[in-house]
Amino acid sequence: MTVIYIDTLFLLNALVDYLLLLAAARLAGEPLRRWRFALGAVLGGTYAVAIFLPGLSFLAHPACRIASAVLMLLVSYGGSRRLLRQGVLFVALTCAFGGGVVAIGLLGGTGLSLGNGVFYSALDLKMVLLSAAVCYGALTLVFQRIGRHSAASGELVSVRLHLGERSAALTALIDTGNTLTDPVSGRPVMVAEGESIAALFPKDHCPRPSDLSDPAAGLARLGTGAWRTRFRLLPYRSVGVDRGLLLAVRTDLLELDGQRQGPVLVALSPTPVSDGGGYRALIGPLDGRGV
User: Fold this and answer.
1) Nearest to residue 110, comparing CAs of 174, 208, 101?
2) Would you tell me how many other CB atoms lie within 10 Å of the CB of residue 258?
3) Would you state the pLDDT for residue 113?
4) Are the CB atoms for 72 and 17 separated by under 8 Å?
5) Using one digit for the tens of pLDDT, what is the confidence trace for 75-125?
6) Rounded CA gap, 198 and 173, in Å?
7) Of 54, 158, 268, 285, which is the most exposed, with the fewest CB atoms less than 10 Å away?
8) Alpha-carbon distances of 279 from 43, 173, 290, rounded to whole Å
């Protein structure tokens, strides 16, 4: 007869769920909202315990499993425009992670048990933590290597924008196809997802999704008072768009990988610029003179 300790059962499943949620968000290029991942992991650990409680065995039904997984994903990623992408990554990582942890557990001599679809281990806590950490590191490394863009190749750069006393950090892709320039100064323009630089603005002057989709109306709402010289409309052309407009904001300072580049005009995109490679902005090739 197998004896299951509730504390070990909860801790193991919550830990695994947290690492999977974190890894899926990192691979999807989403902000790491760790407190939400922790809450989702607590829900996952609680569900794992509930299955074994008297009178709650019905929770092992596939419909209940799906419902619990959906709830965990909504708690962890709710509000993200890449919710489906992160959900698919979470499922894929779960399959790979489960096999990896089981393999490491078997090497430890006692292994993991899979009862009612949740993990349980007779291993001591140190072995559980070590197994989870090794699998998380290995999977993250593998998925990063097969991604399209990488910081090691020089395609991704760390960006920090400054506007007054406020700043916002994000990751940008050096895009050779981005030839957008400021028609006034002739300097290259950075294109960033609107929500990625929300930290630059006070609440009453933070661009809303409606401002980005209707730049003219957004300029009329935001370009008032001391902000009149900050916001402007920027014309652009792209595939399928002969004449378009983007709402743009003039920032005081751009830092690329810690190097100061001076002020830059940032065009605010109403749609994601990333293909899942983990960046939130596009910038033209660097020529050593900054932007």
Assistant:
1) 101
2) 8
3) 47
4) yes
5) 888 877 667 877 888 888 777 766 655 555 555 544 444 444 455 555 555
6) 19
7) 54
8) 29, 6, 20
Q: Buried (b) or exposed (e) across 274-284, using 16+ Cβ within 10 A?
A: bebbbbbbbbb
The contacts of residue 138 (CB under 8 Å, 6+ apart) are 100
Closest CA to 187 of 43, 114, 283: 283
Tokens of 133: 């950490």
Place of tokens 């193991």: 12
Structure tokens at 48: 């794992």
C-alpha–C-alpha distance, residues 291 and 282, integer Å: 12
C-alpha distances in Å from residue 224, one per residue of 182, 200, 231: 21, 16, 9
Mean pLDDT of the chain: 76
Sequence ranges of the domains in the chain:
6-145, 156-283
How many distinct helices (H) and strands (E) make up the chain?
7, 9
**In this structure, which amino acid lies at residue 264?**
V
Quote the pLDDT of residue 262: 87
CB atoms near residue 26 (< 10 Å): 15
H or E stretch including 165?
none
Cα-Cα-Cα-Cα dihedral sign, residues 73, 76, 79, 82: negative
Give residue 89's pLDDT. 82
